[in-house]
Amino acid sequence: MGLRIWGRLSSINVQKVVWTARELELPFERIDAGGAFGGNRTPEYLRMNPNGKIPVIDDDGFVLWESNAIVRYLAARHGAGALWPSDLRQRADADRWMDWQATELTPAMRNAFMQLVRAAPEKRSQALIDESNAATEALMTILDEHLAGRHFICAQQFTVADIAVGAAAHRWFGLPQPHLPRPNVEGWYRRLMTRPAAAGVLTLPVT
Ligand SMILES: N[C@@H](CCC(=O)N[C@@H](CS)C(=O)NCC(=O)O)C(=O)O
Questions:
Q1: How far apart are CA 136 and CA 114, in angstroms?
Q2: Which of 54, 72, 158, 190 has the most CB within a 10 Å radius?
Q3: How far is the CA of 194 from the centre of ligand 1 (A)?
Q4: Measured between alpha carbons, how far apart are the two ends of the chain, in Å?
Q5: CB-neighbour burial class of residue 156 (10 A; exposed 0-12, middle 13-18, buried 19+)
Q6: To 5 degrees, how large is the angle CA 143–CA 171–CA 92?
Q7: Mutate to test the pocket of ligand 1, among 53, 64, 103, 105 (most ligand atoms within 8 A of CB)
Q8: Which of 9, 12, 13 should be mutated for ligand 1, with most atoms under 8 A from CB?
Q9: C-alpha to C-alpha distance for 73 and 84, rounded to whole angstroms
Q10: Structural element, H or E, at residue 192
Q11: Residue ranges per domain, the chain?
Q12: Nearest CA to 119 among 207, 29, 12?
């Protein structure tokens, strides 16, 4: 049966999982679900993920939801020692930046994204955008300082942390508004974009 991934590719959380599968050169089938595709509130879907959210995977009968958990699972199963560092402290370092993406960065940028991309222009709240931009820029300062002198988030090794934070950075840079210059983040982001596994995933317009 192999690996099946449910979720539309415009979702940052689905992008992370698809990008990981491609880095690991895993064959997989992706089924569009969520947003305009729907299909994520059916009884069958809710049996796989009671949250009704995307992504979900089925890996030979093992069903898993929560994008970062899926990325960690696939990387540990197929990319141990590379995408998923085997050294405990290196792994904790990568893991910490994944949590930072999920609990700090993505929540901070959420309102800017929702207002600038998803809301109708006449319903747009500049106050929400300004607040979200300020919160995100504070985090971008941290990321930019961290990436000074580093090729990837965990120094020289491309890991799951680059996938989670990279997908969020892709969304941030894709928002139709000016950005403060972030030389280290921008250089890192350009390196990510040259990876063949990111092609067709991170090259999508932000929608
Ligand atoms: N914490 C979850 C969040 C999942 C989530 O919020 N998914 C959104 C898309 S990014 C969703 O399912 N939205 C409903 C929809 O697309 O119909 C994860 O990382 O997997």
A1: 14
A2: 54
A3: 26
A4: 31
A5: exposed
A6: 40
A7: 53
A8: 13
A9: 9
A10: helix 183-193
A11: 3-78, 88-198
A12: 207
Within a 13 Å sphere around the CA of 16, how many CA atoms are in the beta-carbon half? 35
Q: Decide: 98 in ligand 1 pocket, CB within 6 A.
A: no
Contact partners, residue 39, CB within 8 Å, separation at least 6 = 6, 31, 32, 33, 45
- What is the value of pTM for the model shown? 0.97
| pLDDT band, very low/low/confident/very high, at 4 (cuts 50, 70, 90) | very high
CATH code of 88-198, in short, is 1.20.1050.10
Give the pairing of strands 28-31 and 3-6: parallel
Question: 141 by DSSP, 3-state: which?
Answer: helix
Q: Residue 203 above 80 pLDDT?
A: no
